[in-house]
Design a protein that fits this description.
Layout lengths: L5 H9 L5 H19 L2 E4 L15 E6 L26 H8 L2 E7 L19 E2 L2 E5 L5 H8 L5 E6 L5 H6 L3 E4 L19 E6 L2 H11 L30 E3 L11 H16 L3 E3 L9 H17 L18 H12 L2 H13 L6 H24 L2 E5 L15 H6 L5 H5 L4 E10 L7 E9 L5 H14 L13
Parallel strand pairs: 2-3, 2-6, 9-10, 9-11
Antiparallel strand pairs: 1-3, 4-5, 6-8, 7-8, 7-12, 11-13, 12-13
The chain binds glutamine (GLN).
Protein backbone atom coordinates (compact mmCIF):
# COMPACT_ATOMS: atom_id res chain seq x y z
CA UNK A 1 0.00 0.00 0.00
CA UNK A 2 2.90 2.36 0.68
CA UNK A 3 3.68 2.59 -3.06
CA UNK A 4 0.21 3.86 -3.93
CA UNK A 5 -0.52 7.48 -4.65
CA UNK A 6 -3.45 9.25 -2.99
CA UNK A 7 -5.50 8.86 -6.17
CA UNK A 8 -4.75 5.12 -6.36
CA UNK A 9 -5.70 4.62 -2.72
CA UNK A 10 -9.02 6.35 -3.34
CA UNK A 11 -9.67 4.24 -6.46
CA UNK A 12 -8.94 1.07 -4.47
CA UNK A 13 -11.33 2.13 -1.73
CA UNK A 14 -14.04 2.98 -4.27
CA UNK A 15 -13.70 -0.37 -6.03
CA UNK A 16 -13.77 -2.04 -2.59
CA UNK A 17 -10.35 -3.68 -2.97
CA UNK A 18 -9.37 -2.17 0.36
CA UNK A 19 -11.39 -0.52 3.09
CA UNK A 20 -10.60 2.88 4.42
CA UNK A 21 -10.14 1.31 7.85
CA UNK A 22 -7.35 -0.90 6.48
CA UNK A 23 -5.71 2.16 4.94
CA UNK A 24 -5.95 4.07 8.20
CA UNK A 25 -4.56 1.21 10.32
CA UNK A 26 -1.75 0.53 7.87
CA UNK A 27 -0.47 4.09 8.03
CA UNK A 28 -0.75 4.26 11.83
CA UNK A 29 1.27 1.03 12.01
CA UNK A 30 3.89 2.38 9.60
CA UNK A 31 4.19 5.65 11.49
CA UNK A 32 4.67 3.84 14.80
CA UNK A 33 7.37 1.71 13.23
CA UNK A 34 9.42 4.43 11.56
CA UNK A 35 8.79 7.73 13.27
CA UNK A 36 11.36 7.13 15.99
CA UNK A 37 13.96 7.81 13.26
CA UNK A 38 12.26 10.93 11.86
CA UNK A 39 10.54 12.62 14.81
CA UNK A 40 7.90 14.17 12.64
CA UNK A 41 4.69 14.24 14.63
CA UNK A 42 3.31 16.46 17.36
CA UNK A 43 0.03 14.64 17.78
CA UNK A 44 -1.42 11.37 16.40
CA UNK A 45 -5.13 10.75 16.34
CA UNK A 46 -4.75 6.97 16.64
CA UNK A 47 -8.23 6.13 17.80
CA UNK A 48 -10.09 8.33 15.43
CA UNK A 49 -11.77 6.45 12.65
CA UNK A 50 -15.10 6.74 10.97
CA UNK A 51 -16.25 4.34 8.33
CA UNK A 52 -18.60 5.37 5.64
CA UNK A 53 -18.34 3.14 2.62
CA UNK A 54 -21.05 5.00 0.70
CA UNK A 55 -18.96 8.13 0.59
CA UNK A 56 -16.83 8.98 -2.42
CA UNK A 57 -13.53 9.12 -0.64
CA UNK A 58 -14.43 7.25 2.53
CA UNK A 59 -12.07 8.86 5.01
CA UNK A 60 -8.64 8.98 3.53
CA UNK A 61 -5.98 9.99 6.07
CA UNK A 62 -3.84 13.10 5.59
CA UNK A 63 -1.21 14.74 7.77
CA UNK A 64 -1.65 18.32 8.69
CA UNK A 65 1.08 20.82 9.53
CA UNK A 66 0.55 21.90 13.13
CA UNK A 67 -0.44 25.40 12.03
CA UNK A 68 -3.95 24.55 10.77
CA UNK A 69 -6.57 24.86 13.51
CA UNK A 70 -8.71 21.79 13.83
CA UNK A 71 -11.70 21.65 16.10
CA UNK A 72 -10.85 19.97 19.45
CA UNK A 73 -7.47 18.75 18.18
CA UNK A 74 -4.31 20.17 19.84
CA UNK A 75 -2.71 22.74 17.51
CA UNK A 76 0.55 24.24 18.67
CA UNK A 77 2.37 25.97 15.80
CA UNK A 78 5.29 23.96 17.30
CA UNK A 79 5.57 26.67 19.93
CA UNK A 80 5.81 26.24 23.70
CA UNK A 81 3.54 29.22 23.85
CA UNK A 82 0.59 27.19 22.52
CA UNK A 83 1.53 23.74 23.80
CA UNK A 84 -1.92 23.22 25.34
CA UNK A 85 -4.02 25.10 22.82
CA UNK A 86 -7.14 23.31 21.56
CA UNK A 87 -8.97 25.36 18.94
CA UNK A 88 -12.76 25.58 18.92
CA UNK A 89 -12.91 25.89 15.09
CA UNK A 90 -11.83 24.14 11.91
CA UNK A 91 -9.79 26.10 9.38
CA UNK A 92 -11.72 26.46 6.11
CA UNK A 93 -9.33 24.13 4.24
CA UNK A 94 -9.79 21.45 6.90
CA UNK A 95 -13.56 21.82 6.54
CA UNK A 96 -13.34 21.43 2.76
CA UNK A 97 -11.21 18.31 3.12
CA UNK A 98 -13.60 16.79 5.63
CA UNK A 99 -16.49 17.42 3.23
CA UNK A 100 -14.53 15.38 0.68
CA UNK A 101 -14.04 12.58 3.23
CA UNK A 102 -10.44 13.24 3.91
CA UNK A 103 -9.44 13.54 7.49
CA UNK A 104 -6.47 14.50 9.53
CA UNK A 105 -4.71 11.55 11.14
CA UNK A 106 -2.70 14.02 13.21
CA UNK A 107 -0.45 17.04 13.37
CA UNK A 108 3.12 17.23 12.14
CA UNK A 109 6.13 19.15 13.35
CA UNK A 110 7.31 22.45 11.86
CA UNK A 111 9.47 25.47 12.64
CA UNK A 112 7.81 27.65 15.27
CA UNK A 113 4.95 29.63 13.64
CA UNK A 114 6.45 28.68 10.22
CA UNK A 115 9.47 30.91 10.62
CA UNK A 116 12.96 30.01 9.62
CA UNK A 117 13.79 27.11 7.41
CA UNK A 118 16.21 24.66 8.83
CA UNK A 119 14.05 22.63 11.21
CA UNK A 120 15.75 23.46 14.51
CA UNK A 121 13.37 26.32 15.16
CA UNK A 122 10.63 23.93 16.38
CA UNK A 123 10.23 24.34 20.14
CA UNK A 124 9.83 20.57 20.51
CA UNK A 125 12.44 18.74 18.39
CA UNK A 126 14.00 18.64 14.93
CA UNK A 127 12.63 16.43 12.13
CA UNK A 128 15.17 14.45 10.08
CA UNK A 129 15.57 14.00 6.35
CA UNK A 130 14.66 10.41 5.38
CA UNK A 131 17.18 10.49 2.50
CA UNK A 132 20.05 10.96 4.91
CA UNK A 133 19.52 10.97 8.65
CA UNK A 134 22.55 13.18 9.19
CA UNK A 135 20.88 15.95 7.18
CA UNK A 136 18.05 18.36 7.84
CA UNK A 137 14.63 18.02 6.25
CA UNK A 138 14.32 21.80 5.98
CA UNK A 139 11.32 23.75 7.04
CA UNK A 140 9.09 25.06 7.99
CA UNK A 141 6.86 22.22 6.70
CA UNK A 142 9.52 19.72 7.80
CA UNK A 143 7.20 17.09 9.26
CA UNK A 144 4.87 17.11 6.26
CA UNK A 145 7.70 16.65 3.74
CA UNK A 146 9.62 14.10 5.76
CA UNK A 147 6.66 11.77 6.16
CA UNK A 148 5.31 11.91 2.62
CA UNK A 149 8.88 11.31 1.44
CA UNK A 150 9.29 8.22 3.62
CA UNK A 151 5.89 7.11 2.32
CA UNK A 152 4.46 7.08 5.82
CA UNK A 153 1.43 8.87 4.43
CA UNK A 154 0.21 9.64 0.88
CA UNK A 155 -0.19 13.43 1.27
CA UNK A 156 0.09 16.27 3.75
CA UNK A 157 -0.88 19.90 4.18
CA UNK A 158 1.69 22.61 4.71
CA UNK A 159 1.99 26.34 4.32
CA UNK A 160 4.29 28.36 2.09
CA UNK A 161 5.18 31.96 2.84
CA UNK A 162 8.62 32.33 1.33
CA UNK A 163 9.48 28.72 0.59
CA UNK A 164 8.18 26.54 3.43
CA UNK A 165 6.60 23.93 1.19
CA UNK A 166 9.12 24.19 -1.60
CA UNK A 167 12.40 23.66 0.21
CA UNK A 168 11.40 20.77 2.48
CA UNK A 169 9.47 19.04 -0.33
CA UNK A 170 12.39 19.34 -2.70
CA UNK A 171 15.01 18.24 -0.17
CA UNK A 172 12.88 15.20 0.60
CA UNK A 173 11.84 14.34 -3.03
CA UNK A 174 8.10 15.02 -2.97
CA UNK A 175 5.86 17.34 -5.01
CA UNK A 176 4.87 20.76 -3.67
CA UNK A 177 2.17 22.84 -5.23
CA UNK A 178 1.04 26.36 -4.45
CA UNK A 179 -1.69 28.09 -6.47
CA UNK A 180 -2.08 31.86 -6.87
CA UNK A 181 -2.21 33.67 -3.53
CA UNK A 182 -5.81 34.82 -4.14
CA UNK A 183 -7.17 31.29 -4.30
CA UNK A 184 -6.21 30.58 -0.69
CA UNK A 185 -8.20 30.70 2.46
CA UNK A 186 -6.08 31.42 5.52
CA UNK A 187 -9.10 31.41 7.78
CA UNK A 188 -8.03 29.76 11.09
CA UNK A 189 -4.59 28.96 9.81
CA UNK A 190 -2.12 30.56 12.23
CA UNK A 191 -0.77 33.58 10.37
CA UNK A 192 2.89 34.18 9.74
CA UNK A 193 3.08 36.97 7.12
CA UNK A 194 -0.46 37.48 5.89
CA UNK A 195 0.36 39.09 2.54
CA UNK A 196 2.33 35.99 1.52
CA UNK A 197 0.99 32.93 3.40
CA UNK A 198 -0.39 30.14 1.19
CA UNK A 199 -1.70 26.97 2.81
CA UNK A 200 -1.24 24.13 0.34
CA UNK A 201 -0.04 20.55 -0.28
CA UNK A 202 2.80 18.07 -0.37
CA UNK A 203 2.06 14.92 -2.38
CA UNK A 204 3.82 12.06 -4.13
CA UNK A 205 2.59 12.93 -7.62
CA UNK A 206 1.40 15.90 -9.68
CA UNK A 207 -2.04 14.34 -10.10
CA UNK A 208 -2.44 14.04 -6.33
CA UNK A 209 -1.62 17.75 -6.08
CA UNK A 210 -4.39 18.41 -8.62
CA UNK A 211 -6.86 16.24 -6.67
CA UNK A 212 -6.37 18.27 -3.49
CA UNK A 213 -6.43 21.52 -5.49
CA UNK A 214 -9.89 20.64 -6.80
CA UNK A 215 -11.08 20.26 -3.20
CA UNK A 216 -9.31 23.21 -1.60
CA UNK A 217 -9.75 25.81 -4.37
CA UNK A 218 -12.70 27.59 -2.88
CA UNK A 219 -13.91 31.13 -2.59
CA UNK A 220 -14.04 31.66 1.17
CA UNK A 221 -16.25 34.56 2.18
CA UNK A 222 -14.61 34.58 5.61
CA UNK A 223 -11.22 35.38 4.08
CA UNK A 224 -10.98 38.85 2.62
CA UNK A 225 -8.14 38.08 0.21
CA UNK A 226 -9.86 35.02 -1.26
CA UNK A 227 -11.50 35.90 -4.57
CA UNK A 228 -13.92 34.05 -6.79
CA UNK A 229 -12.28 32.60 -9.90
CA UNK A 230 -14.21 29.56 -10.98
CA UNK A 231 -12.31 27.45 -13.47
CA UNK A 232 -12.09 23.76 -14.03
CA UNK A 233 -8.92 21.95 -14.95
CA UNK A 234 -9.42 20.28 -18.33
CA UNK A 235 -8.92 16.48 -17.87
CA UNK A 236 -7.28 16.37 -21.33
CA UNK A 237 -4.08 17.78 -19.82
CA UNK A 238 -3.26 14.34 -18.41
CA UNK A 239 -2.98 13.00 -21.99
CA UNK A 240 -0.38 15.58 -23.12
CA UNK A 241 2.88 13.86 -24.05
CA UNK A 242 5.23 16.65 -25.09
CA UNK A 243 5.85 20.34 -24.50
CA UNK A 244 5.78 21.55 -28.13
CA UNK A 245 3.56 24.49 -27.23
CA UNK A 246 5.59 25.64 -24.26
CA UNK A 247 8.04 28.52 -24.13
CA UNK A 248 10.26 28.15 -21.08
CA UNK A 249 12.22 31.00 -19.63
CA UNK A 250 15.46 30.39 -17.80
CA UNK A 251 16.19 33.55 -15.79
CA UNK A 252 19.94 34.03 -15.81
CA UNK A 253 19.90 35.62 -12.34
CA UNK A 254 18.90 32.26 -10.88
CA UNK A 255 21.99 30.57 -12.23
CA UNK A 256 24.58 32.92 -10.83
CA UNK A 257 26.52 33.59 -7.65
CA UNK A 258 25.51 31.26 -4.87
CA UNK A 259 24.20 28.29 -6.91
CA UNK A 260 26.04 25.15 -5.79
CA UNK A 261 27.90 23.44 -8.64
CA UNK A 262 26.26 20.02 -8.02
CA UNK A 263 22.81 21.55 -8.09
CA UNK A 264 23.63 23.56 -11.23
CA UNK A 265 24.75 20.47 -13.15
CA UNK A 266 21.63 18.60 -12.12
CA UNK A 267 19.31 21.43 -13.14
CA UNK A 268 21.04 21.76 -16.51
CA UNK A 269 20.39 18.05 -17.05
CA UNK A 270 16.70 18.66 -16.36
CA UNK A 271 16.72 21.50 -18.91
CA UNK A 272 18.09 19.05 -21.48
CA UNK A 273 15.14 16.81 -20.68
CA UNK A 274 12.76 19.72 -21.28
CA UNK A 275 14.39 20.26 -24.68
CA UNK A 276 13.95 16.57 -25.50
CA UNK A 277 10.28 17.07 -24.77
CA UNK A 278 10.27 19.87 -27.38
CA UNK A 279 9.98 22.83 -25.06
CA UNK A 280 11.46 26.02 -26.49
CA UNK A 281 14.01 27.44 -24.06
CA UNK A 282 14.39 31.21 -23.97
CA UNK A 283 17.17 32.86 -22.03
CA UNK A 284 16.38 36.33 -20.66
CA UNK A 285 16.58 38.18 -17.36
CA UNK A 286 14.57 39.18 -14.28
CA UNK A 287 16.64 42.16 -13.13
CA UNK A 288 14.88 42.82 -9.81
CA UNK A 289 15.67 39.31 -8.49
CA UNK A 290 18.75 40.49 -6.61
CA UNK A 291 16.67 42.73 -4.32
CA UNK A 292 14.05 40.12 -3.44
CA UNK A 293 15.69 38.59 -0.35
CA UNK A 294 16.33 42.00 1.20
CA UNK A 295 12.76 43.17 0.52
CA UNK A 296 11.28 39.92 1.87
CA UNK A 297 13.26 40.06 5.11
CA UNK A 298 11.91 43.53 5.82
CA UNK A 299 8.28 42.93 4.85
CA UNK A 300 8.01 39.53 6.53
CA UNK A 301 9.38 40.38 10.02
CA UNK A 302 7.05 43.40 10.04
CA UNK A 303 4.03 41.21 9.29
CA UNK A 304 5.18 38.33 11.51
CA UNK A 305 5.55 40.49 14.58
CA UNK A 306 2.27 42.26 13.98
CA UNK A 307 0.62 38.83 13.91
CA UNK A 308 2.53 37.59 16.97
CA UNK A 309 1.18 40.35 19.16
CA UNK A 310 -2.09 38.49 19.51
CA UNK A 311 -0.15 36.09 21.75
CA UNK A 312 -0.14 38.52 24.61
CA UNK A 313 0.48 35.98 27.39
CA UNK A 314 -2.76 36.90 29.08
CA UNK A 315 -5.14 34.98 26.85
CA UNK A 316 -3.06 31.80 26.44
CA UNK A 317 -1.80 29.28 28.93
CA UNK A 318 1.79 29.95 29.55
CA UNK A 319 3.05 32.86 31.44
CA UNK A 320 6.27 33.42 33.26
CA UNK A 321 6.59 32.72 37.01
CA UNK A 322 9.15 35.46 37.38
CA UNK A 323 7.99 38.37 39.53
CA UNK A 324 7.23 41.57 37.64
CA UNK A 325 6.61 45.15 38.66
CA UNK A 326 4.56 46.38 35.75
CA UNK A 327 2.95 45.17 32.54
CA UNK A 328 6.00 45.99 30.45
CA UNK A 329 8.15 43.69 32.55
CA UNK A 330 5.48 41.00 32.39
CA UNK A 331 5.48 41.11 28.58
CA UNK A 332 9.28 41.11 28.46
CA UNK A 333 9.60 37.96 30.60
CA UNK A 334 7.03 36.08 28.61
CA UNK A 335 8.26 37.10 25.20
CA UNK A 336 11.83 36.01 25.92
CA UNK A 337 10.93 32.90 27.83
CA UNK A 338 8.37 31.32 25.54
CA UNK A 339 9.35 32.33 22.05
CA UNK A 340 12.17 30.72 20.12
CA UNK A 341 15.11 32.75 18.85
CA UNK A 342 13.84 33.51 15.31
CA UNK A 343 10.53 34.93 16.57
CA UNK A 344 12.53 37.13 18.93
CA UNK A 345 14.86 38.28 16.18
CA UNK A 346 11.93 39.21 13.93
CA UNK A 347 10.25 41.14 16.73
CA UNK A 348 13.35 43.29 17.10
CA UNK A 349 13.63 43.83 13.34
CA UNK A 350 9.96 44.74 13.19
CA UNK A 351 10.32 47.45 15.81
CA UNK A 352 13.17 48.90 13.74
CA UNK A 353 11.77 48.80 10.18
CA UNK A 354 8.36 50.13 11.14
CA UNK A 355 9.62 52.84 13.48
CA UNK A 356 8.81 56.45 12.56
CA UNK A 357 12.48 57.17 11.88
CA UNK A 358 13.19 54.27 9.55
CA UNK A 359 9.81 53.48 7.98
CA UNK A 360 10.54 55.31 4.70
CA UNK A 361 14.00 53.93 4.20
CA UNK A 362 13.11 50.31 5.00
CA UNK A 363 9.47 49.21 4.96
CA UNK A 364 8.27 51.64 2.31
CA UNK A 365 11.28 50.97 0.10
CA UNK A 366 10.76 47.19 0.44
CA UNK A 367 7.12 47.56 -0.66
CA UNK A 368 8.24 49.58 -3.69
CA UNK A 369 10.70 46.86 -4.62
CA UNK A 370 7.93 44.31 -4.31
CA UNK A 371 5.93 46.25 -6.92
CA UNK A 372 8.92 46.26 -9.28
CA UNK A 373 9.33 42.49 -8.85
CA UNK A 374 5.64 42.02 -9.74
CA UNK A 375 6.18 44.16 -12.87
CA UNK A 376 9.25 42.09 -13.79
CA UNK A 377 7.21 38.90 -13.77
CA UNK A 378 4.28 40.50 -15.63
CA UNK A 379 6.57 41.49 -18.49
CA UNK A 380 8.10 38.01 -18.51
CA UNK A 381 4.78 36.25 -18.85
CA UNK A 382 3.86 38.36 -21.86
CA UNK A 383 6.62 36.47 -23.68
CA UNK A 384 6.74 32.98 -22.14
CA UNK A 385 4.43 30.37 -20.64
CA UNK A 386 6.52 29.19 -17.72
CA UNK A 387 9.70 30.05 -15.88
CA UNK A 388 11.92 27.29 -14.57
CA UNK A 389 14.65 27.53 -11.96
CA UNK A 390 16.26 25.54 -9.16
CA UNK A 391 14.22 25.46 -5.94
CA UNK A 392 17.26 25.85 -3.76
CA UNK A 393 20.88 26.84 -4.34
CA UNK A 394 22.11 23.82 -2.38
CA UNK A 395 21.28 20.26 -1.36
CA UNK A 396 20.04 19.55 2.19
CA UNK A 397 22.62 20.72 4.73
CA UNK A 398 24.21 18.53 7.36
CA UNK A 399 22.60 19.00 10.74
CA UNK A 400 25.44 21.10 12.10
CA UNK A 401 25.96 23.18 8.95
CA UNK A 402 25.25 26.92 9.18
CA UNK A 403 23.49 26.42 12.49
CA UNK A 404 24.32 29.84 13.81
CA UNK A 405 24.32 31.74 10.56
CA UNK A 406 20.88 33.24 9.90
CA UNK A 407 22.17 35.05 6.82
CA UNK A 408 23.03 31.77 5.05
CA UNK A 409 19.55 30.59 5.89
CA UNK A 410 17.94 33.73 4.47
CA UNK A 411 20.01 33.59 1.27
CA UNK A 412 18.93 30.02 0.61
CA UNK A 413 15.46 31.48 -0.10
CA UNK A 414 16.74 33.45 -3.09
CA UNK A 415 14.99 31.44 -5.83
CA UNK A 416 11.60 31.04 -4.21
CA UNK A 417 11.02 34.42 -2.60
CA UNK A 418 10.50 36.51 -5.78
CA UNK A 419 7.50 34.38 -6.83
CA UNK A 420 6.03 34.55 -3.32
CA UNK A 421 6.28 38.33 -3.28
CA UNK A 422 4.50 38.39 -6.67
CA UNK A 423 1.70 35.99 -5.54
CA UNK A 424 2.50 33.55 -8.36
CA UNK A 425 1.46 29.90 -8.57
CA UNK A 426 4.22 27.29 -8.68
CA UNK A 427 4.93 23.58 -8.62
CA UNK A 428 8.05 21.44 -8.47
CA UNK A 429 9.18 18.28 -10.22
CA UNK A 430 12.26 16.19 -9.46
CA UNK A 431 15.22 17.24 -11.62
CA UNK A 432 17.45 14.28 -10.80
CA UNK A 433 19.66 13.11 -7.94
CA UNK A 434 23.11 14.42 -7.20
CA UNK A 435 26.07 13.54 -5.06
CA UNK A 436 26.33 15.59 -1.89
CA UNK A 437 28.75 18.49 -1.78
CA UNK A 438 31.18 16.58 0.43
CA UNK A 439 31.29 13.92 -2.26
CA UNK A 440 29.80 11.17 -0.17
CA UNK A 441 28.28 8.19 -1.90
CA UNK A 442 24.75 9.10 -0.88
CA UNK A 443 22.49 10.55 -3.57
CA UNK A 444 20.33 13.54 -2.71
CA UNK A 445 17.30 14.88 -4.57
CA UNK A 446 17.40 18.15 -6.53
CA UNK A 447 14.17 19.72 -7.75
CA UNK A 448 13.05 22.05 -10.47
CA UNK A 449 10.70 24.93 -9.70
CA UNK A 450 8.10 25.79 -12.37
CA UNK A 451 6.28 29.13 -12.13
CA UNK A 452 3.58 30.73 -14.21
CA UNK A 453 1.32 33.80 -14.28
CA UNK A 454 -1.50 34.27 -11.79
CA UNK A 455 -4.51 31.96 -12.22
CA UNK A 456 -2.77 29.78 -14.86
CA UNK A 457 -2.58 26.69 -12.66
CA UNK A 458 -3.73 24.42 -15.50
CA UNK A 459 -0.61 25.25 -17.51
CA UNK A 460 1.59 24.42 -14.52
CA UNK A 461 -0.02 21.08 -13.85
CA UNK A 462 0.23 20.14 -17.52
CA UNK A 463 3.95 20.96 -17.84
CA UNK A 464 4.79 19.29 -14.51
CA UNK A 465 2.84 16.17 -15.42
CA UNK A 466 4.57 15.75 -18.80
CA UNK A 467 7.98 16.12 -17.13
CA UNK A 468 7.08 13.74 -14.30
CA UNK A 469 5.83 11.09 -16.74
CA UNK A 470 8.98 11.35 -18.85
CA UNK A 471 11.21 10.68 -15.82
CA UNK A 472 11.18 8.17 -12.99
CA UNK A 473 12.77 10.10 -10.15
CA UNK A 474 9.62 10.87 -8.19
CA UNK A 475 8.96 7.15 -7.82
CA UNK A 476 12.05 6.77 -5.65
CA UNK A 477 11.85 6.57 -1.93
CA UNK A 478 14.58 6.19 0.68
CA UNK A 479 15.41 2.49 0.66
CA UNK A 480 15.25 1.83 4.37
CA UNK A 481 11.50 2.49 4.61
CA UNK A 482 10.54 -0.88 3.12
CA UNK A 483 7.49 -3.04 4.15
N1 LIG B 1 12.70 30.97 5.19
C1 LIG B 1 11.47 31.67 5.12
C2 LIG B 1 11.25 32.48 6.38
O1 LIG B 1 11.80 32.13 7.38
C3 LIG B 1 10.38 30.70 4.84
C4 LIG B 1 9.24 30.65 5.78
C5 LIG B 1 7.95 30.16 5.18
O2 LIG B 1 7.78 30.03 3.96
N2 LIG B 1 6.97 29.89 6.06
O3 LIG B 1 10.55 33.45 6.37
Amino acid sequence: MKDLSLLEIIENIKSKKITSKEVWNYFVWRIEKYDEKLWAFNFVNKDWFKENDNSILAWVPLWIKDIFCEKWVPTTGSSKMLENFIPPYDATVIKKLKEAWMSSIGKVNMDEFAMWSTWWNSAFRPTWNPWDLTRISWGSSSGSASWVSAWLIPAALGTDTGWSLRQPASMCNVVWFRPSYWRNSRYWVMPMASSLDCPWTITKTVRDAWLLYEIMNWHDKLENTSIEVKDIIDPKIWETKNLKWVKVWLPKEYFEEWLDIWVKQTILKAIEKLKELWAEIVDISLPMTKYAVAAYYIIVPAEVSTNLWRLDWLRYWYSSNKPYNDMQEFYMHNRWEWLWVEAQRRSVLWAYVLSAWFYDSYFKKACQIRTLIIEDFKKAFEKVDVIVSPVSPNVAWKIWQNLNDPLKDYLADAYTIPASLAWLPGISVPAWFTKSEDNEKKLLPVWLQILTSQFSEQKLLEVANVFEKATWYAKQNPQWFED
